[in-house]
Queue: 4 jobs
Job 1
Amino acid sequence: MPPSADSRGSAFLDLRPFRASSAFTKLWIGSTLAGLGGQLTIVTVMLHVFALTGSTFAVSMVAVAGLVPMIVAGLYGGMLADAFDRRRVALAAAVITLLSTALLATLTWAGLETIAWLYLLSVINSAANSVGMATRTAIVPRLIPADLLAAASALNGITIGVMVMVGPALAGVLVAATGYGLTYTIDVVLMLAMFLGLWSLPALRPEGEIVRPGLASLVDGWRYLRRSANIRTQYLMDIIAMTFGNPLTLFPALGTVLLGGGAITTGVLTASVAAGTFLSSVFSGRASRYRWHGRGIARAIQVYGAAIAMFGAVLLVSTFFPGADASTPHLALIAAACLALAVSGGADNISSIYRNTMMQAAVPDTMRGRLQGIFIVVVAGGPRVGALYAGTLASLTALWFPPLLGGLVVIVLVTVLLQRLPRFREYDALAPVA
């Protein structure tokens, strides 16, 4: 019986994908280091824009400007990955990212950087990264056995945890200590690691019928998704979680209005989510061997909803202890909020392990790129709809209300879906069906 057939074994991170494939190992190392560098640049650009403009609106527009190009590039990148050699597509995306970051560093060293250049190069980076991410994800099932895909997804959680925990903090330290130019240059150096994993790969042309990029290819992907009830359901559950259970947009106000501690509290809350992601991957050994991935996705999202509701409850309790400010934070309540957010990050990561594995195992090779591109739309759009939900509802009610209500809504909606969709509930990793 394959290791994924039950949940026995070590609770610690399953490292067998490293032993099974040196190509996967190199790709993982390269993606982790390049991802860390990418986080350096994302945060540094925001700091740079604020230094040049003094406007938080200008900073927020960095993310807004890159949203549509990221979605379009993700969709088109998925089509490219299903039509051409994936190694070449991923290399081309990495080269574009490297060159745009190198130009950003050069302009900064020369003192020629402008807001327009920062926006333009950020958009190019965002688009190229979307193409690279869709392509690299489609590559993984060609490098390791199917029974190790869940373990490989858990290793991806380590990458994300390191990126989000270390990247922003390191960017702040480097900018303060060395300036913007050297920080961008460090990203260029780290990004070179991506070529370590990609250059040594063999040719990886898609298997099966190939549809050239264009409207016909995109329509073909959407038609496949319409026939794939399990994939559609996991997309829907993720949208529910990100729409009603994404309180990140509230964090800046919490350090000022409710919990105290100012910007430090905002950073600690954000890091707590990443810490939960990291720790859940470290102890993902048994989770990665669990075979009922439909149930695993639903249960993890239910835990996620409960954690977000608990976070909202902590914020509600904080309203009974007024007087917090930047210099007098409510440390006990901040700790409780961080614990709730760490649980949410861990649960979201476990859900992601099963979702990624289902995508990679159940979707045929010739469709993987396009489905990953569509998934980028889900990943990019859900949190932004969630930010609109949380921000609007908080402005009409109170800061604690959106997460408390949203977490409960997530639990109820996912429970209803799980009960009404027996095919998804009985999804078996040993016999994957999209």
Job 2
Amino acid sequence: MNTKAQKLEAFSQLLDIMDDLREKCPWDKKQTFETLRHLTLEEVYELSDALIDQDLTEIKKELGDVLLHLVFYAKIGSEKGSFDIADVINSLNEKLIFRHPHIYGDIKVQDEEEVKQNWEKLKLKEGNKSVLSGVSKGTPSVVKAFRIQEKVKGIGFEFHNAEDAWKKVDEELAEFHAETDLEKKEMELGDVFFSLINYARISGINPDTALEKTNSKFISRFQKMEKLAAERNQTLSEMNLEEMDMLWEEAKKI
């Protein structure tokens, strides 16, 4: 592993490269907060894929891409005379020190849960008007539900155990099945999803990771189905459901 001096040198070189690119590269010169935004989201999703696959080589690569974007935003901020990378890091340092009084102060905590509860209470002291004010509107729905539940848990709004949380799932499922109006049924289905996510979270399962693994598994099996069909000169779209089910079971064994 690199020494602290080597890490600082590498970061310093990155800042120099960013300065060069912003000054000399036609593409980099044209970028703004707005034009980079969707590219940043893409890079974060690519990092997410690498993390799920636990591919360390790809994780290192994608972390670099995300870091480049962070430095890029800071460079644009400095050009606007608003902030630079040092301001970004100093602000982060101050926040981390303030939110970890059990490390940098005299607060005592028993476990991880107390740390989380203190974290949410300290955020309110920083000026947040609501425990939920930090939940981004653009966050994907499953992740957003998980974060909402984590945040309200921080002030004690939580089921006592997973069994109680599952009772809520049963309750919401019953309401969903009983509803006949389509618009109201949609709302009830949302409640089912929210309660399932809550149950998963309390049970120690990340629902977004679980769903993404299922997505990947489905893609893999379906592509095996397509390959099997092609090897037999068959086309899935021309097969009936029973035939495709048989192929699906066969693909599961490969």
Job 3
Amino acid sequence: MTVEVPRETVTLTHIAALARLGHALSDETRTRILLTLREAPAYPSDLADALGVSRQVMSNQLACLRGCGLVESVPDGRRVWYRLADQRLAPALGDLLGLVLAVDPGCCGPECTCA
């Protein structure tokens, strides 16, 4: 017996959203930011210190992630902290991480020979 699973209609909006996520994940620093923010919101300076990057780099990467619609800034007095823009992103990142590790953790890394 075959069970049919209903599929969501894929639109250009869906494709653009996945492309933005792919762009965000194509940079190691942005990926590390997203994985860190799935644990808890953070101030840019704390993220920069935790990830070992300059505050300028952090500012640029957060601006990119904000532009992709993946993070949002929250004013806090004279400071601003960041969180994932959608609560569903945290488990989705965890699922993606599990999937990538299950497929081949060595593929497409610095010493990849698949290309």
Job 4
Amino acid sequence: MIAYIKGKLVQILDEAVIVDVQGIGYEIFCANPFAFQDSFGKEVQIDTYHHVREDAHILYGFKKAAEKYLFTKLISVSGIGPKGALGILSSVDAAGFAAAIEREDEKFLTGFPGVGKKTARQMILDLKGKLTDLVVSQQDMPVDEPKDYDRPDNNTLLDEACEALRALGYSEKELRSIRPELQKEKSAGTDELIRKALSLLMKNR
């Protein structure tokens, strides 16, 4: 399998990018090819998924590792093929989709082209509990731990976590109901608070 392609980005199409690797142009289909616009004419390394069919070998590319991980999970669901998975990735970030799965938001999921109630329910059954790490993607976070004097206090981290949950569609009423429990998590970072919050929100439903 081809895990990534490294070469010069020479063309951006509506559905794909072309990367030149020692004189060979690889066509890589992407959810949003224009996300690579700032790398045009430069050397890039694109994470890829090599999809093999009887009549074709197709490369799908991703800007972030979290997107590739979500893609592989989506195509494991009955009724979701690579094109459908790309359609979902082009419409929502990985964290937003993961949150919708955790809260079993069928209305949100059926908003994607080609996704009916049956497929939405299948996605929830197959993926719930498997995507929580994407709510705050570890690949997009700095690896260095902040020094103690730089570390935000618990209220600041809690506010940041609540803001992220609001962006994912949770109401003020829902957040108020779990805030006292989250305040007990004295040493938790923002990502840990979000995961704890999602768990609490699901129990309250």
